[in-house]
UniProtKB/TrEMBL annotation:
Transmembrane segments: none
Single annotated GO MF: DNA binding
Keyword Ribonucleoprotein: no
Domain HTH arsR-type: 1-95
Keywords: DNA-binding, Transcription, Transcription regulation
Protein name: ArsR family transcriptional regulator
SMART domains assigned to the protein according to its UniProt record, in alphabetical order: HTH_ARSR
UniProt keyword annotation of Transcription present: yes
InterPro entries per record: ArsR-like_HTH, HTH_ArsR_DNA-bd_dom, Metal_resp_trans_reg, WH-like_DNA-bd_sf, WH_DNA-bd_sf
Amino acid sequence: MNEDQAISALGALAHAQRLRVFRALVVAGPEGLTPSVLAERLDVARNTLSFHLKELAHAGLVTVEQQGRNLIYRAEYQLMNGLIGYLTEHCCEGGVCEVSASFPLCKG
């Protein structure tokens, strides 16, 4: 991941509703969710949800797949993990870190 990708991803997540959408997709796992299920679970209007999904997709945080008449949105775990890695890449240089859930957790 480079700086521009990190800025794009963080910018997309810097909105409460988009963060909720992304977290719901992470929880859903690889099966993903349709916009109608997301809208119902998050109590958000479908046109508003569509805008937020577009922003998350533009940042590469979600993918969309057409399955028949439905769209399935999924979290892009590789980009999510890349963002976490980018943010923690130089964590605690010269200090003490703990490894937790496959990435360093800074104590400092």
